Amino acid sequence: xxxxxIIGLTGSIGMGKSTVAAMFEAAGVPVFDADATxxxxxxxxxxxxxxxxxxxxxxxxxxxxxxDALGQHVxxxxxxxARLEAIIHPAVGERxxxxxxxxxxxxxxxFDIPLLFEKGGHEAVDTVVVVSAPAEIQRERVLAxxxxxxxxxxxxxxxxxxxxxxxxxxxHIIDTxxxxxxxxxxxxxxxxxxxxxxx
Length: 199
Description:
Blueprint: E1 5-10, H1 17-26, E2 31-33, H2 34-42, H3 49-55, E3 60-61, E4 64-65, H4 67-74, H5 78-102, E5 108-112, E6 127-132, H6 135-143, H7 150-159, H8 163-169, E7 172-175, H9 180-198
Parallel strand pairs: 1-5, 1-6, 2-5, 6-7
Antiparallel strand pairs: 3-4
């Protein structure tokens, strides 16, 4: 039985990954957004709240996870972060599997996964697309975000595979250090190429 071609989309913080994922979606490619899935499961009445509260008391409320309170538990604490990931990752995996079944007839589907290489997810996809931009553009974008500091940015970068390594391991690279129209043209060309492969 044929199945969709599975595209793994990744990129470091501020590289424009969400923008590129939206371009794939607009072109008709079903997109599974790992971050959005986690946010919904940690939001009001989210299914992960009870387990997170047991593990990290005081970090949730009926409105969902209190990101600051949870951050204090796990920031710079690898052991606590591993406990949090042990709650989140299996649940996301189940959602991803359900998404795959729902879209079994699509020619291709896209998994938007920020830590694709870091967590070994690249082994479960057919082709890897890395979204990248020059470091100075990345820095400018990230530091323009509310509540972002240079220290926080450096910490996030330290947890991610360096951009150069991601580019080395990519099957395809989408460069976002250009206009939106140029990025869109790159996405359209890639979809055309992958459509041939999916067929």
